[in-house]
Amino acid sequence: MHSKQVQFHVQPGGCLKGEGRVAGDKSISHRSVMLGSIAEGVTHVKGWLEAEDALSTLAAFQAMGVKIERGGPGELTVHGVGLHGLKAPAGELYLGNSGTSMRLLSGLLSGQPFDTVLTGDESLSRRPMKRVTAPLRDMGAVIETTEAGTAPLRIKGGHQLKGMHYDMPVASAQVKSCLLLAGLYAEGETSVTEPAPTRDHTERMLQGFGYEVRRDGDKISVRSGGKLTACDIDVPADISSAAFFLVGASIAEGSDITLQHVGINPTRTGVIDILKLMGADIELLNPRTVGGEPVADLRVRSAKLKGIAIPEELVPLAIDEFPVLFVAAACAEGQTVLTGAEELRVKESDRIQVMADGLVALGIDAKPTPDGMVIQGGRLGSGRVNSRGDHRIAMSFSIAALRASGTIDIDDCANVNTSFPTFVSLAKNLGLNISVTE
Ligand SMILES: O=C(O)C1=C[C@@H](OP(=O)(O)O)[C@@H](O)[C@H](O)C1
Ligand SMILES: C=C(OP(=O)(O)O)C(=O)O
Fold this sequence. Notes:
- The chain is α/β, with parallel strands linked by helices.
- The chain folds into two domains: about 5-25 and about 235-435, Enolpyruvate transferase domain (UDP-n-acetylglucosamine1-carboxyvinyl-transferase, Chain, Alpha-beta prism); about 25-235, Alpha-beta prism (UDP-n-acetylglucosamine1-carboxyvinyl-transferase, Chain).
- The chain has helices spanning about 25-35, 50-65, 100-110, 130-140, 175-185, 200-210, 240-250, 270-275, 320-330, 350-360, 390-400, 415-420, 425-430; strands at about 5-10, 15-20, 40-45, 65-70, 75-80, 95, 115-120, 140-145, 155, 160, 165, 185, 190-195, 215, 220-225, 230-235, 255-265, 280-290, 295-300, 335-340, 365-370, 370-375, 385, 410, 435.
- The strands form seven sheets. The chain has a four-stranded mixed beta sheet. A four-stranded mixed beta sheet has the order 2-17-19-18. Strands 4-5-3-16 form a four-stranded mixed beta sheet, covered by helices on one side.
- A hairpin with a 2-residue loop joins strand 18 (about 280-290) and strand 19.
- The radius of gyration is 21 Å and the shape is globular.
- It binds shikimate-3-phosphate and phosphoenolpyruvate.
- The site of phosphoenolpyruvate has 11 residues, from helix 3.
- Pfam families: EPSP_synthase (PF00275).
- It comes from Methylogaea oryzae.
């Protein structure tokens, strides 16, 4: 656990120039450890995200008897134990700040013969888990939670799951993935329909491991009885981490950057679509497919942004990028309106309220609504904002300094290490005048 005392201090102005590679994709990194662990054979991973969230998943599988070796930067060797080879851990599985770890593991562990207890930090212990425990119980899982339906999750092993169809009420890749992983252990077929497309890394990676996944329109299904065969995984750079620099280079006059090897899976590129609708200048160079995932280098040059009404169908495709998109909106000419994004209220923080508070503190007219925000583009001032321990908010306000009139000081930034530990050094290399105190 780490201190809340980490502060970022960012001097105003400047622009971003040069090339760089942001940290590995967090969603794909989690899944590489999970699927590699339950595969047969040895899986080699490169480009893996060495950050606290992914390390929580890694530690959980090590605690369940999987041998995972860490090589050079971003390299993992996962000695798979097969679908039925996990062992009872000696203690609780502590998953830190990571919603993805907890929700995906709840599905995978409901099908095991042993008990597990999943715990997390203060933020993760507040986040809603009924969205996974309710359908898992319908499949026959036995899980105890707090009265509020939150962690710790006490999962009782040894209950045979039964496949079922689930019509997901929220567009959530974590819920979808949880149920597909439970489906590997459930009798017959398990299927889900999603109300809107969400990231499909689980489906792609299961197929990469030779496991059949069917998609029929918005319905995705798996059957138990198959096996996963080890494979090599090349994790692209995370578009959610790239997003800070896509916005930074767009809003800071004179910027011209290229971000290498960024994952551009169409279920993740909402941020590019939204920024382009706002007038951003983003080019996709050298598009290619790496290990079943599309990748490109992204060149971004500064542009005059304008406010827009964000199309609701893009919301799940940019769900983690709204904190920094709100900064883009604050720097755009005119009004930006976001609706249909109530999910933002149950992330690591209430990202609607916390971002509105910070923007208002910096002099921007930002009005939170139950499911989004209305932002008038304006002049960013200076001052002190609190990230409330939310990594994406700390990084978003750092980027805002490129257009601020004075220094921005940001409190409670330690959790940047959950997704993007190299943020400060890369930001400095590209031209952001940022320093850290502890
Ligand atoms: O499946 C995943 O890897 C993720 C899904 C999203 O959550 P939801 O499924 O809650 O939308 C996203 O916010 C999270 O950062 C990662
Ligand atoms: C919501 C996020 O992650 P998680 O749900 O895994 O905590 C995020 O990284 O923005």
